[in-house]
Design brief:
The model is unreliable at 301-308 (pLDDT under 50). The longest helix has 29 residues, at 218-246. Helix 1 packs antiparallel against helix 10, helix 7 runs antiparallel to helix 13 (276-296) and helix 8 (160-186) packs across helix 10 (218-246). By secondary structure, the protein is mostly helical. 76% of the residues lie in helices and 0% in strands.
Length: 308
């Protein structure tokens, strides 16, 4: 793998994460809360996937994309279950009960879980230093999220919503890895498009069946459109390409930035405040990502004495 491709892969990963980071506040806008519900989590899940599926079908037809081969259907199906159905549904229900800051406590584990899935599914290996950086970054993110939750009086206790968020993390991680597994053969754009099109026979009728009959706030529709067009579709163009070019194990660590980007997005969307603590933790996490990227590269072979 060329160094230039690795660097581009990392930047594409960051771009994908930036789009993903807005998913939590936009999903909360779409679903509302238990006290003021808007769109149902099932409708948001099916509706966002259906919207992305229609766009994907247009893209595949316009580019005359060939059908996936027989051995590619299984990883595509796993990505459908993880990214198109599992993650958005579990997140949607969880965000009915907790706010985006609380959700960040659990979803901060995504980089470590994705890296573990990469090592398991794709048989990728890294030096011990990489795993130490990954763990350090995850600890920093969790510590920051806990500190922030406590400072806002929310506290932290493992409840039903947390179980849903943990399940969402595993669903997303497996979906990412199985999608990345076939990206070199199909291409990043075709992978996410086939994922969305495969789900379309279920998501489109389901979304129409669950179409809301009660008045819904315009902000909820805006949230649905965002998670359908960006979170479910455009972001994956960059994300799967980044995982394939830069290495799923390495690029997955850019997800450590996601909670902080989510908080930045929540400032205009949810009226939250940005403070120096956020910036300090973000800087520390960026340092672990950079260190982890360097330590993930194989050691250079020792040079023989007298070699030129």
């Amino acid at each position: 793998m060329k160094l230039k491709d690795e660097t581009l892969g990392m930047w594409l990963g960051v771009l994908g994460v930036a789009f993903f980071a807005v998913t939590l506040p936009m999903t909360r806008l779409a679903t509302g809360t238990q006290a003021a519900p808007q769109l149902s989590p099932w409708f948001v899940t099916l509706g966002r996937a259906a919207l992305a599926g229609v766009l994907s079908m247009i893209f595949l037809l316009a580019t005359r994309a060939p059908m996936p081969k027989r051995h590619q259907w299984k990883p595509l199906g796993m990505a459908v279950l993880g990214n198109a159905i599992g993650y958005p549904l579990l997140i949607g229900y969880a965000l009915r009960m907790v706010n985006a800051s609380h959700a960040a406590v659990i979803t901060a584990l995504l980089p470590l879980v994705t890296a573990a899935c990469a090592a398991w599914v794709l048989h990728q290996r890294a030096r011990l230093g990489f795993w130490l950086c990954a763990m350090a970054g995850s600890v920093l993110v969790i510590a920051f999220s806990l500190l922030r939750a406590n400072s806002h009086g929310g506290g932290f206790g493992f409840a039903w919503a947390d179980a849903l968020l943990v399940a969402a993390v595993f669903a997303a991680s497996l979906g990412y890895i199985y999608g990345a597994q076939i990206t070199p053969a199909l291409g990043a754009e075709r992978v996410i498009c086939w994922i969305c099109v495969m789900a379309l026979p279920v998501t489109l009728p389901g979304a129409l069946l669950l179409w809301p009959t009660q008045p819904v706030a315009p902000s909820a529709w805006i949230g649905l459109v965002y998670v359908g067009v960006f979170s479910m579709w455009i972001a994956f163009f960059a994300w799967f390409r980044g995982l394939a070019m830069g290495g799923a194990l390495r690029v997955s660590q850019t997800q450590l930035l996601q909670p902080f980007l989510t908080i930045l997005a929540a400032v205009p969307l949810l009226g939250e405040q940005l403070d120096i603590v956020t910036l300090g933790f973000a800087g520390a996490v960026v340092a672990t990502v950079i260190a982890g990227k360097k330590l993930s590269q194989p050691r250079a072979p020792a040079r023989l004495a007298g070699a030129s």
